[in-house]
Amino acid sequence: MHNLKKKGDPDAFDENWKSREETYYNHFTEGEPKNQIQLAFQSHFEVFNEILSKYPTIGKSFLETGCGRGTLSNYFAKNHWDVTLLDYNDSVLKVAKKIFRAQNLKVKIKQGNALHLDFPDNSYDIVANIGLLEHFEDIQKLMDEQFRILKPCGWCFSYVVPERHDNIQRYFRWINILLNFLTFSWILNKKKEKPEVYRSDNFSERYLNCLEMNKVSKVITHGMYPLPMISHSPEFPFSLLPKPIELLLTIVFKITLKIRKKIFGRHGWICNEKFGQAFLVAFQKK
Ligand SMILES: C[S@@+](CC[C@H](N)C(=O)[O-])C[C@H]1O[C@@H](n2cnc3c(N)ncnc32)[C@H](O)[C@@H]1O
User: Fold this and answer.
1) Under 8 Å CB-to-CB from 113, ≥6 apart: which residues?
2) Which of 154, 41, 77 is nearest to 85 (CA)?
3) How far apart (Å, rounded) are the C-alpha atoms in residues 35 and 235?
4) What is the CATH number of the domain that holds 82?
5) Is 169 a member of any domain?
6) Using 50, 70 and 90 to split pLDDT, how confident is the model at 235?
7) Phi–psi pair at 247, nearest 5 degrees
């Protein structure tokens, strides 16, 4: 991918992911979420679904770029969307394929580059990605490609996880440091040196600047994930705690989201961009 060796080269993802058992976790669940990541993906889907119920697409074709295991796409496939997965990394696509097969869900799988999508103009009703855009320094080409392959009335949902140290996580960092120390992760992780992956600190404005506003009918941006990530190893890819602790945290977090909903009168997962772990950049093509 051009000169991105230092700026989020997909080969760095290859090396980073392959070395970690977390790559093989399946974060999709149909029932109640039992850990922090299941809660997160279920909540992402609910937020996207709320937007779609207000501003529907015409058809049901869905593409996830930089899909990894394709967790978000599992939700769309379960809800009768015609899903295509695309990732640069062949080995992670094999993981995604296994997960879809285990769920008995139909999917098309394509190895490819989000910078040069091998699809004609106006191909999909939704293009979505989770944790992809922040890994590129030059995002104009990515945004142009997403726009190009969208059908009229189609939505692009980009969930972006910026490199920031002033969001909600700052109040809870001490817990993770303590967990890291108590579980000896600081010794174990030292042995598993992994390549750095580039992550930008841009907010949504930077992404919106790439859009031609006269060609979109609706733009939505807001913060997402107003909860801490609690883990002995919270960096990417996120490590889960033992099951009973995850379950307890999930229950506490769900109650927190319900209270937030009561107070703010919107989905509890939505928040101020500076406060959340991530933010949404969404637009609907005219
Ligand atoms: C942070 S991971 C996110 C994975 C997935 N979206 C998830 O939610 O678990 C980023 C993914 O983007 C993929 N990727 C990186 N650069 C890419 C590119 N230029 N084209 C397509 N996929 C890319 C990586 O292989 C990796 O699977």
Assistant:
1) 1, 10, 88
2) 77
3) 16
4) 3.40.50.150
5) yes
6) confident
7) -65, -45
DSSP 8-class letter at 134: G
* Angstrom distance (rounded) from CA 114 to CA 66: 7
Q: What is the tally of structural domains in the chain? A: 1
Biggest distance spanned by C-alpha atoms of the chain: 54
Q: What is the rounded CA–CA span in Å between residue 281 and residue 92?
A: 25
Which residue's C-alpha comes closest to atom 16 of ligand 1? 10
Contact 130, 119 (CB under 8 A): no
- Which residues form the pocket of ligand 1, taking CB atoms under 6 Å from any ligand atom? 1, 10, 13, 65-69, 71, 87-89, 92, 113-115, 130-132, 135
Give per-residue pLDDT as tens, 165-184: 899 999 999 999 999 988 87
Residue type, 64: E
Place of tokens 């030059």: 138
Distance in Å, CA 208 to ligand 1 centroid: 21
pTM of the complete model: 0.92
The DSSP annotation for 36-95 comes to HHHHHHHHHHHHHHHHHHHS--SS-EEEEET-TT-HHHHHHHHTT-EEEEEES-HHHHHH
Domain that holds residue 203: 10-285
Residue appearing with tokens 């490819």: 112
